[in-house]
Design brief:
heterodimer, A: 114 residues, alpha/beta, five-stranded mixed sheet, B: five-stranded antiparallel sheet, 5 helices, 5 strands, globular
Chain lengths: 114, 156
C-alpha cells in the first residue's frame, strides 16, 4: 500500500492509493506515526498516485502533521486538483504545504535536516 | 424552481460506487462552471455519499440514490438512503459544524477527524436533512446564479 525511502535524512512516503479515504486512512495513520516514532520527522508525502481524498483522510493528514510537530516537517507533493481543493476548503494548505514534485519538496526541506 | 437539467442514479452502498454518482453529477453541471466549483461539489457529494455508506448503512449492503437538479441559479444534490437516520446529535452537528479556525486553535489541538459536516457547510449555501418512511435525504444546494445569468443552460 505504501512505498517509502529515505535519502539525506528525509523520508518520502508514497501511498499507492487512487482513493485515500475512510477505508485506507487508518493504515496511513499507523504508517506515518510509525515513521515519526522512530525519529524520522522530516517527511515528504508523495500523493502523485492519489486522485481523491475524503475528510477522514484529511484527518489522517492532520494526525501526521501533529506526529512530526513541533520540530519536524510534513509536506506534500504531486497533489491532484481535487486534493488541492480539499486542502483549500479546509485551509489545511496553511499547515501542509504542497510542492509540484518530490525533488522540489526535498529542496525546500533540506534546511530542516539536522 | 425551474429545472433545466436533472439526472439520478441508484447505486449499492459501497465506496467503489462513487465514480458512478460522480459521473451523474458531472453529466448535469454546465460546461461553463469553473473547475474549482466542480471539485467543491464533487467533494461534498463524496462526503455525503460516504456518510450514507458508513453511518446510515454501517458498511452493510444497501442502496444510495443520488439526484442532481440544475436550474439557472442553483445546483441541488440529493443523497437519499434507506439506512439508519442521523441521531439528534448528528443533526445538530450538521446544522452548526464549522471548520477549525487555524488562527485561533493551537495546531496541537487540531481535530484528527470530524471535518465532513464542516466541509459541507463551508461549500454549500443550504443543507437540509429529512428522515421518514424509511428514507433519509440530505439535500445540498449551491447557488451558481451570476455565471448562469450570462450563459443560459440549454433545456433538456
Amino acid at each position: 500500500m505504501f512505498e517509502e525511502w529515505t535519502r539525506d535524512g528525509i523520508v518520502t512516503l508514497r501511498p499507492n492509493l487512487e482513493r485515500f479515504d475512510t477505508a485506507t486512512a487508518p493504515e496511513f495513520k499507523r504508517k506515518i506515526h510509525e515513521i515519526a516514532d522512530r525519529g524520522d520527522r522530516i517527511i515528504v508525502l508523495d500523493l502523485s498516485r492519489t486522485e481523491y481524498i475524503d475528510s477522514t483522510a484529511l484527518g489522517a493528514l492532520v494526525s501526521g502533521f501533529k506526529a512530526v510537530a513541533p520540530d519536524g516537517r510534513l509536506v506534500l507533493c504531486g497533489i491532484s486538483v481535487a486534493v488541492e481543493t480539499m486542502l483549500s476548503i479546509t485551509r489545511m494548505d496553511r499547515i501542509l504545504p504542497a510542492f509540484p514534485d518530490e525533488e522540489s519538496a526535498r529542496e525546500a526541506l533540506a534546511g530542516s535536516v539536522r | 424552481m425551474k429545472t433545466a437539467r436533472r439526472a439520478a442514479v441508484r447505486v449499492e452502498s459501497r465506496a467503489e460506487a462513487f465514480p458512478r454518482i460522480h459521473a451523474t453529477l458531472t453529466s448535469v453541471l454546465p460546461p461553463w462552471l469553473p473547475e474549482s466549483v466542480r471539485h467543491r461539489l464533487a467533494i461534498c457529494l463524496g462526503e455525503a455519499f460516504q456518510n450514507a455508506v458508513v453511518h446510515a448503512w454501517g458498511h452493510e449492503d444497501g442502496w444510495v440514490e443520488v439526484r442532481v437538479a440544475l436550474d439557472d441559479d442553483h445546483v441541488v444534490i440529493d443523497v437519499v438512503d434507506g439506512g439508519a437516520g442521523m441521531t439528534d446529535a448528528d443533526r445538530r452537528r450538521l446544522a452548526t459544524a464549522e471548520l477549525p479556525d487555524l488562527d485561533r486553535i493551537p495546531l496541537s489541538a487540531l481535530p484528527e477527524g470530524g471535518y465532513g459536516f464542516g466541509i459541507l457547510r463551508s461549500v454549500m449555501d443550504e443543507i437540509e436533512y429529512t428522515s421518514g418512511r424509511g428514507r433519509n435525504r440530505l439535500r445540498m444546494t449551491k447557488r451558481i446564479g451570476e455565471s448562469a445569468a450570462h450563459t443560459p443552460v440549454e433545456p433538456v
